[in-house]
Amino acid sequence: MGMKQQPHKTTISIRYSTILTLALLLTSAFLFISPLMHVQEPLLFPSEQTSFSGDLRDANFPWNKLCFGPTFEKLKLAVFSKTWPIGAAPGGMERHASTLYHALAARGHEIHVFTVPSDRRPHSDIHEGNLHVYFAANDHGSVNCSLAFEIFNKIGTDVAFDYVHTESVSLPYWRAKMLPHVAVTWHGIWYEIMHSKLFEELFSNPNGVLPSPTTELQEAMPRLIDEIKFFSSYKQHICISNSAGEVLIDIYQLPQRNVHVILNGVDSTKFVHNPEAGIRFRRRYGIPENASLVMGVAGRLVRDKGHPLLHEAFSLIRKRHPGLCLVVAGSGPWRRRYAELGSSVKVLGALESSQLSEFYNAIDVFVNPTLRPQGLDLTLIEAMHCGKPVLTPNYPSIVGTVVVNEEFGYTFSPNVKSFVEALELVIKDGPKLLNQKGLACKEYALSMFTATKMASAYERFFLCMKNTRYCQYPLPTDC
């Protein structure tokens, strides 16, 4: 009996391996072609507002490019978020949520957020003017969906919510499909995560010495198919990069009118170009005054953020250019590994949000070595606001949305050889040219990546979903 089953298993294995290989080749081809499609996108500064006129649901570009006027209609919004930022450790999604909902509340809208504290510790609910944050945690510190829905239903009893918004799958799809008015913002989709798994495999096992494909890669395609199937449970979809929007339409087969692009924004009053603050920061942390070039990296110091890649590339480049200095801001397992590199590296640990602007101003170029081609990393746009060029992988989500022109920085393929070549270009250009590129970054960031731009776009989106009159652009009140 066992002998009869063996050929059948082999056939299934071969077919599955073939399908997986073809899928990965196709996704790799998409990754290669997509940056070429986007890199020539024309720059758009405040004086060059798009000439779009019509229904916003037909817009095939980020809503941030438009200038929306004031509105006197106020909304009551319910929000489901994975966590709420507490302290210096939170990641980009939590910081995005805090920035967005504080901004919407400041515009007069009633915002109710159902979430848990990012530090997983007990905290009292937050009530600040129009912003209400309810912590509904289970025993493990994650969102207790049943408890969150109890609070949600209680608050929506007297005056119904105009719309429900969820950050990724914070509101599970089986609950979302029971609500009439739901929008979801995707900070990463499995199609992009699959690319992440591919890049991590290629970097950690370049010669194919280890068994391949890995378990995670084997599981990638079934998970992608599952995700595509349940995405339609959400009514409206907001993407934070141009490339993700294209994937949801072309690969996930969602209706174009249900997919919208609104880019992340940061508080442009906190992240500002301030060379004097940078000088003070260098002195405070003992960054060498005679360093030929100061590079900086910030965020969680973990493997999938690309720190093995940066560690190896910097170890090579510093031998050729001993005057380099790498400043590392963040916490995680790779903190100790960086410290082992000696005096050419300054490891600062996690910084408070109030210190991040000073950190960016203290460096010549910001490095983001991530192996995760998904979402829109806030550190890139924070650095750009502070007048710094960026050095980052050439993922579609980045070159199609952030580094849309070589004037803003440098890109590389996620491998050591390409990374080192890009570093050589940065060193060749030197601090003076880097400063010029940084000023161009600042202007572009102010035109696209501000909290005001982001909140204004989300406000108009929710108004449009409530009343189609607001879907027309421009309105008499628009700029």
Automatic annotation (TrEMBL):
Read off the Pfam families from this record: Glyco_transf_4, Glycos_transf_1
InterPro entries the UniProt entry points to: Glyco_trans_1, Glyco_trans_4-like_N
Q: Which UniProt keywords apply?
A: Glycosyltransferase, Membrane, Transferase, Transmembrane, Transmembrane helix
Entry's transmembrane regions: 12-33
* Glycosyl transferase family domain location: 293-432
Ranges for the Glycosyltransferase subfamily 4-like N-terminal domain? 90-268
Q: Which domain of life is it from?
A: Eukaryota
Q: Which CDD domains match?
A: GT4_PimA-like
Tell me which PANTHER family the record gives.
GLYCOSYLTRANSFERASE
The name this protein goes by in its record? Glycosyltransferase subfamily 4-like N-terminal domain-containing protein
